[in-house]
Every structure is written in C-alpha cells, then in structure tokens.
Amino acid sequence: MLSLQISKRRALRAFSNMQPAESQEPLLNKFYGNEWRELDSSNERLRLIASFDREIDLVELEQLCDAVGWCRRPQRRVRTALENSLLVIGLWRHDKRFPRLIGFARCTGDGVLDATIWDLAIHPLYQRSGLGKGLMLVLLERLRDMEVEKITLFADAQAVRFYLAQGWDLEPQGNRCVFWYAR
Ligand SMILES: CC(C)(COP(=O)(O)OP(=O)(O)OC[C@H]1O[C@@H](n2cnc3c(N)ncnc32)[C@H](O)[C@@H]1OP(=O)(O)O)[C@@H](O)C(=O)NCCC(=O)NCCS
To answer: What is the pLDDT of residues 95-148, one digit of tens each?
Structure first.
C-alpha cells in the first residue's frame, strides 16, 4: 500500500476540462437527490449517474466489493463507516425500476484542511471506460468546493499508476508515512 497526495491547485486544474453540471431532471432528482452528475457512457442508452445523496444499499456495496476482490467487512461496521464519512459517493447504472450500484468511493476528513479518500471501486464490467477517473473528479470537485487543502489516499500497488496519471504525487521520499494496524 502506497500513500499519495494531491494539492488543491492540482485538484483544481483537473477540473478545468469538466463539463458544467447537467440541467436537473425531476425524475433523476427523485432517484439521486439534488446532487448528481451524469458520467460519460460509451453506450447512449446507458445512463451512469454519480450521486452523493442516494443512499448506498449495503448488500449492493458488498457485491461490488466482492466483484473487485476485496475482503468482506461486517455490514454493521461498514454502515458506521459510511455514517462517519465526510462524503460518500455512489455511481449507478440508471434504471427506472432498479438502479444498479457499479461504482463507489468515500472520503473521511475534517471538511476544511485534510481529507482522505477510501474504497474507490468500479465494477469490473465497467472498468477502463473512464468511470474511475470521472468518479474521482466529481469527488475532488466537491472537496475543492469545501476548500479542503490536502487530499491523501492509500493506493493498492496495482492502482498507483492510475492515480499518478491523474496528477497525484507519491508521498515525498517514500518514508514519511507510517501505519498502525490493530491486531
Ligand atoms: C482502479 C479503478 C478504480 C480504476 O477505475 P477505471 O474505471 O477502470 O479507470 P478509468 O477507466 O477511469 O481509467 C482512467 C485512466 O487510468 C488508466 N488505468 C485504469 N486502471 C489502471 C491501473 N490499474 N493501472 C494503470 N492505469 C490504469 C486507464 O487506462 C485510463 O487511462 P487513459 O485516461 O489514458 O485512457 C478500478 O480498476 C477498480 O475499481 N479496481 C479495483 C479496486 C481498486 O483497486 N481500487 C483502488 C484502490 S486504491
């Protein structure tokens, strides 16, 4: 696991290419609340909606984590982790009857100075289509609006290049990060 960080300036620059928020649609507001963003989809019949407002179904989240190969965590503890997070964002494949959760990330922090992103996952069926990057940009935009100054994350080794390509820096000298694990 490696530690990465991104400065407010870089996070801001990452946004210069983003389209403004979609005009709001009442039906989507009903599903996803007032704070949703549509991510680009290669299939025009497929609508992919990122939202901070729609409640995350813990069973669906567990299925998503299973799909990307993460160890299971007790649902009761996951629920508390989500409740205690600063931001929780889901990405749904929109469907009028049953939107499917296909992406997720959350962020902890004090809301002004520091934030740490956790658990970014895109379902394998939807990977390599720009959705991980898109979901991250929506999250960074919100953190930028909160004027958070420093954002960090701990990346799995196989995902480090994904973050580096988006302007994240490996922590300086690779020796300032320490971990403590409960045993
Ligand atoms: C890592 C992850 C979130 C990336 O999501 P994704 O939707 O597949 O990524 P994107 O399609 O947005 O990729 C954006 C760019 O990064 C590249 N990329 C994606 N995954 C990469 C990886 N693992 N290593 C290097 N580059 C990667 C893509 O090729 C793309 O490059 P481009 O902009 O030049 O075309 C996704 O693979 C995933 O959920 N993995 C399993 C869980 C995980 O490891 N999460 C990260 C925990 S730290």
So the answer is: 999 999 999 999 999 999 999 999 999 999 999 999 999 999 999 999 999 999
Any atom of ligand 1 within 6 Å of the Cβ of 158: yes
User: What residue segments make up the domains of the chain, in order of their start?
Assistant: 2-174
**Alpha-carbon gap, residue 181 to 183, rounded angstroms:** 6
Q: Determine the pLDDT at residue 121.
A: 98
Give the pairing of strands 2-7 and 36-39.
Answer: unpaired
Cβ 73 under 6 angstroms from ligand 1: no
Q: Structure tokens of 79?
A: 């629920």
Q: How far apart are CA 85 and CA 64, in angstroms?
A: 19
CATH number of 2-174: 3.40.630.30
Q: What CA–CA distances, in Å, run from 142 to 87, 89, 175?
A: 9, 10, 30
Ligand 1 nearest-atom number relative to CA 70: 42
* pLDDT at site 23: 56
Nearest CA owner, ligand 1 atom 34: 165
**126 is known as an active-site residue:** no
